[in-house]
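Onboarding guide, step 5: your first structure request.
Type a short instruction followed by the sequence, for example:

Predict the 3D structure of this protein.
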Amino acid sequence: MFNLEEIKDPKFLKTLSMKELKILCKEIREFLIEHISKTGGHLSSNLGDVELTVALLYVFNDDADKFIFDVGHQSYTYKILTGRAKDFSTLRKYDGLSGFINYDESSYDHFESGHSSTSISALSGFLIAKEKGENIHDTIAIIGDASISNGEAFEGLNFISTFKNEHPVIILNDNKMGISKTVGATSAIFDVMRRSKVYHGLKAALCFIFPKPITHWFHQVKRGMKAFFQHDNYFEDMNLDYYGPYDGNNIRECIKVLERAKEAKTPSVVHLYTKKGLGYKFSEEDEIGKYHGVGPFDIETGKELKVWKENEFSYSEHVARTLKDIKCNKNKICVTPAMIIGSRLKDLQKEFPHSIYDVGIAEEHAATMCASLALNNQKPILFMYSTFAQRAYDQILNDISRRKLPVTICIDRAGIVPGDGSTHQGIYDVAMFLSMPNMIICQGKNLRETEGLLKYIANINYPSVIRFPKRTEILGQDLVEINDMKWEILKKSNKNAVISYSDDILNILDLVEKNNLDLEVTNARFINPLDEEYLESIKGRKVLVYEQVCQNGGLYSQICSLNEKKNLNLTIIQMAIPQSAFVPHGDIENIKKLYRLDDESLLKELKKLCD
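The system replies with structure tokens like these:
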């Protein structure tokens, strides 16, 4: 019935009947399943919020209305209804459609949100700007996938409650899930709210049977009713007008409650419970987060299309497997902020249920908790994505680094990250950790060296970071034993040298050997501390430092500092990501080419080094 690719803007929604709106929702789901099965992307969260988003753009349809999605990966239906369905074949590809809200993509994208729990704080800024005379009408934050449990969301709620003359709307998209099932008291509170069936039934009946004046009167006396049917509601305790919970997958119910919230006089929270993955059997039944973010998959079977080779593992998976070898020490405890699935810790959690803790979307809490564990004779291992580790800078610096506490930090998704774009790149963590005293930083050239590094640093009494990329690899046969923090010379020469780390050094070695270049190739598997003895041994040479991090604050900067301090007379050349760049989404090879880090550019620099 609908040609989604012809949609220019959401204004047409007002012309549709309820029957047509339901058909539209069905067709959007079919469109999402078909396209995401080919491109990959965030599947379950977007299948769950179709009716919610359609109702949102049906009720709030003014050009000056502002929509803030939290997190931005739940915005695919919004993209379709704002004229971007025709671009879905390019989703997450280089120069294609972003998987998140993107200012450069559409005037409808009002606030970029790659990380969670920022929407209510952003909403506050829009409200103040409105008071200052900006052309802003209704302001709406859509917060979902457990983002409400993060500290910044509570800070935003605390502030938003102070607005007396504005009526922003906060839509709580409550699907009981983050990536996987939510944890903690916040989740338990929402369970209580959802189970208030008698109250919910009375409320829904009044909403649909009686005219608006009566339902508004009912809303004014609801707290008395809730005292009987539902004892706690912290939104109302914060003086926020609360509507809910309502069925977020019922288009009629969504429209009715959003229309009421639109007419409210004070800040309000609309609590909509939705089914994550609705409309696709495999994602509906998924309780561990397998279909939260997917690669291309077969719609009929739900199986990913990638064909895994024998002994092929992702770095995340192999690091989790390695932990089994060091779990015999009962004092080793793994902590992760909502990354149990992404960090491949689920099987380990089943085997060691009292040694693996998922603290929810709470990076700062996770870091300080690990510091406390270390103070109490435990050996915590903290799993974080590179991009999310940035959120815990203060806690890692002051609670862990400052006191030299033996916390091992596993940094997943290090280096260039394809698909997710500028908010998710793993190119800043080296500079962040190098700014902290006492911090050991390392990265292996392959799976086996990563395994050896983890076993080494997990058993030393020092704050340590081990980085690894979002990548798969064939597992080599020989274990790499690490007994010290020295660098590894992969190809010896008396000529100039190339220094790098990660699998980049193996690629460099391959280029050097294939082109018969007389260069020394050195694996700086410890980014900090530097191997000063090695650097002194190549005194007076030219050195090329290649790394997938931002230009300032990486290995190159460390070597430059030592070069000046010790008068090594090294001529140092850098290949890295420009400091001014925010890396876009797309495949790694195109991104490398964009910043002249590709093989062709690298070979040119290697040949120059031989001159």
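Each response can be followed by summary notes, for example: The chain has a mean pLDDT of 90.
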